Amino acid sequence: MSSNIFITGESPRFWTGHGVVLAYQIVCLLGGTIFMHVMLRIENSKRRSGKRDNMHAGKSSEEVWVAGDNRPDFIYTL
Hints:
- There is one protein chain.
- The protein has one domain (2-70).
- The longest helix is centred in the middle third of the chain and has 35 residues, at 15-49.
- It is built from three helices and no strands.
- The two termini are 37 Å apart.
- It has helices at residues 2-5, 15-49, 61-66.
- Helices cover 58% and strands 0% of the residues.
């Protein structure tokens, strides 16, 4: 793919190649951040509404405490 993006005629600057790589990095960084924010908000709302309360049914309080962020009362910070 880089042979199609980094065109030898644009040497030594390669504006097209560097522009495409920069665009992909921006889209992935921004898209990943937005995706993670939305998914954590959804997970927090499920935990607050009680849909995750049965995650550790049948386990002792010590086993639930050791579960860390898998505990149903754990809320992610956004």
